[in-house]
Amino acid sequence: NYGITVTMADGTPIAVTSKNCGNILGDDYIAGKLTYAPDTHTLTGTGSFGKMKVEITDDLEDKVDVVLSNANGAVVNGSLTVTGAQDVEVTGTSSSALIDGKTTISCAGDILMENTGTGNVIGTNIATNLAVNSARSVTIKNVGTEGNRSYAIYGRADITCSGNGNVEIVSSNGMAIWDP
Question: Cα 73 to the chain's mean position, in Å?
Fold first, then answer.
C-alpha cells in the first residue's frame, strides 16, 4: 500500500498498491487511465474522469506529484479534490472546461492548470469555486479566443500560498476570473 487513495464518483475509495498501480481504476474504466509510478512518486491520469478525490497520506505526504491530462475534452467532469500532494498539474485541450466542478487542492509544491483549447480551465455553466491551500505557487492559464467568453476560472478563487509563492491567473482573451 503506497498511502494513496483515489475515490471516484461512486464513492468507493481505492487504495493504490503494488498490485493495481499499473491501472488503478481497472479495465472497466474506459474513459481514462490512472497509474502510479512508485519510483518517481507520480500519479498520472490520462483521459476524462468523473468526480475525483486523491488523498496522499503516511510517508508520501508532500512527495507525490499528481499529473492529469486530456488531449481532447474535459479532464474531470465533476469536482476535483487533491490532498497531500507535492505538485499538481492539470492540462489539456477542451472547448468546455478542464475541470467542471469545485476544485480543492492542498499541496506543498506548485500547481499548474492550463487549457490550450477555447474553454475555461475551471467551471462551465454554473459558477465553480477554486480553493488552494499552502501551495508554493499557482499558475492557471486558458487560451480562449476573441469573442469566446471563456475564463481561466468561471467562479471564485481562494488561494493561499506558502513562503514567497506566486499566483498567476492568465487568460489570453483578457477574461481571467468570472466572480458572481
Answer: 14
Q: Residue 109: phi, psi to the nearest 5? A: -110, -135
C-beta atoms surrounding 102 within 10 Å: 17
Conformational region of residue 34, where left means phi above 0, alpha means psi within -120 to 50, and beta covers everything else: beta
> CA 115, CA 11: separation in Å to the nearest integer?
27
DSSP 3: S
Query: Which set of grid coordinates corresponds to residue 158?
Result: 481562494
13 band by pLDDT with thresholds 50, 70 and 90: very high
For residue range 76-116, what is the model confidence (pLDDT) as tens digits? 999 999 999 999 999 999 988 999 999 999 999 999 999 99
pLDDT at residue 10 tops 90: no
Question: Which residues, other chains included, contact 169 with Cβ-Cβ below 8 Å and sequence gap of 6+?
Answer: 138, 140, 141, 152, 153, 157, 176, 177
Helix (H, G, I), strand (E, B) or coil at 58: helix
In contact, 144 and 123? CB cutoff 8 Å: no
At position 137, the amino acid (one-letter code) is S
Q: Which of 114, 179, 175, 107 lies closest to 142, judged by CA? A: 114
Q: What is the pLDDT of residues 156-167, one digit of tens each?
A: 889 988 877 899
What percentage of the chain's residues is helix, strand, coil (to nearest 5)? 0, 55, 45
